Amino acid sequence: MRNLNIFCATINYFKILEKLPSYIVPVGLGDKQFPANWLIEKKGENISHLNKHYGQLTMFYWLWKNKINQMHAEDFIGSCEHRLLWLDKLYEEKQKYSFDSLYSKLLSPKNKVFEEIDLIQLKPTTFKNRTVLEDFEECHNTKILRDMIEFLPKSDQNNFLKHLNQNVLYIGPMFITKVKYFKEYCEIMFPWVEKCYELSKSRNLLKGYNNRLPVFLAERLTSYWITKFNRRTSLSFARLGNFHLSNIINNFINKFKLPLTFRQFPTLYKY
After folding, report:
1. pLDDT value at position 241?
2. Binning pLDDT at 50, 70 and 90, where does residue 257 land?
3. Is the peptide bond before 173 cis (omega within 30 degrees of 0)?
4. Which end of the chain is more exposed for a tag (fewer CB within 10 A), N or C?
5. Residue 168 CB partners (closer than 8 Å, separation 6+)
6. Is the pLDDT of residue 240 over 80?
7. Lowest mean pLDDT across 24-28, 197-201, 259-263
8. ∠ CA 175-180-106 to the nearest 5 degrees?
């Protein structure tokens, strides 16, 4: 059985993350204060200052530069977010559970899926009336993605364009793979996304919804990269609700010592 480490990105402290299994490791992003036993992306070599544009990719960069050299190449490494946790199989229907009952459904290193695959992905989105490229340009009102193709290795340019001109998108970056493949991903992604950032900045595109344009561009390259794997499968995730609201409610309860309990009820999603 290979080791599994899933790194959970968060920009705020949430007590519920303290209850996760030891192989799901919280990583604090940004300038907030986090528990001493958490990983903090601002320690070591980092691009934390770009988090508002890069999103979860700043955690990927930190892992690439500071963590994976301590891990075995055949071990599994993955990512999740404080609201999205990997589950043990692909569920067909939405269901609601208390966190305690959800705990037993989380993906674990003992799952036999790790004997059969090289990558775990979320279930893809299939567009009915448009391509991946058309969807991007409609959502972001820019044709910058076309211009970024030439900055990829020549061996990938035509295949990436073919991927953009079909209608299946693997939303990310949220996946689990072997350390050796994660390293390859980072070596391709970060030189490219740096060029995405510089071009977006020069065209004055980094504002409003497009403030995170580099990570939206990176999602399309990640989707293409995922399709290179033959041994891969999709698993479901649990969406854990509005933590910001629950923190406010629980702080109010604790401040006034009210005899109340407020609990999150996660929802299982089929993708």
Report:
1. 62
2. low
3. yes
4. N
5. 124, 125, 126, 127, 132
6. no
7. 259-263
8. 35
The residues near 266 (Cβ < 8 Å, ≥ 6 apart) are 85, 96, 97, 99, 102, 238, 239, 240, 241
Pair of tokens at residue 248: 């406010």
Say which DSSP state 250 is in: H
The answer to whether 213 touches 53, Cβ cutoff 8 Å, is yes
pLDDT given for residue 252 in this prediction: 53
Token readout for 175 is: 């996946």
Buried b (16+ CB within 10 A) or exposed e, 187-225: ebbbebbebbbebbeeeebbeeebebbbbbbbbbbbbbb
Query: Are 21 and 33 spatial neighbours (Cβ–Cβ below 8 Å)?
Result: no
- Where b means 16+ CB within 10 Å and e means fewer, 41-71 reads beeeebbbebbebbbbbbbbbbbbeebbeeb
Q: Which of 265, 262, 242 is nearest to 252 (CA)?
A: 262
> Domains of the chain (ranges plus CATH)?
4-256 (3.90.550)
